[in-house]
Amino acid sequence: xxxxxxxxxxxxxxxxxxxxxxxxxxxxxxxxxxxxxxxxxxxxxxxxxxxxxxxxxxxxxxxxxxxxxxxxxxxxxxxxxxxxxxxxxxxxxxxxxxxxxx
Length: 102
Description:
The protein is α+β, with helices and mostly antiparallel strands. The protein has helices at about 15-20, 25-35, 40-45, 55-65, 85-90, 95-100, and strands spanning about 40, 70-75, 75-80. The protein has one domain (about 10-100): Winged helix-like DNA-binding domain superfamily/Winged helix DNA-binding domain (Arc Repressor Mutant, subunit A, Orthogonal Bundle).
C-alpha cells in the first residue's frame, strides 16, 4: 500500500511552499484544485492531458511534501485536496495572492 508523506502543519515552511509553487505546472495544478474547491484525482487536476504519469506523480509529490496538498487513496485513485486552512494559518492569503498574479 502506498504511504504518502504529509508534513505536520507546524512543519510547513515559506521556502518549501514558494519552492513548490515556482514551477508553472505545479502552479496550474494548485489553481485547478483551488478553483474546484474540492477533491480531485491527479488526472483531473493535471495541467496538460498528455503529461507523462511519472512527471505528474513528481509534481504531486513535491506539492504534498511542501504541505500544499493532502493526498489519500480512494479505491484506485489518488484524491487530492488543498491544505488551505493549514497554509492560511501560517501564511494568510499567500496562496490566493500568488495565484492572482500568476
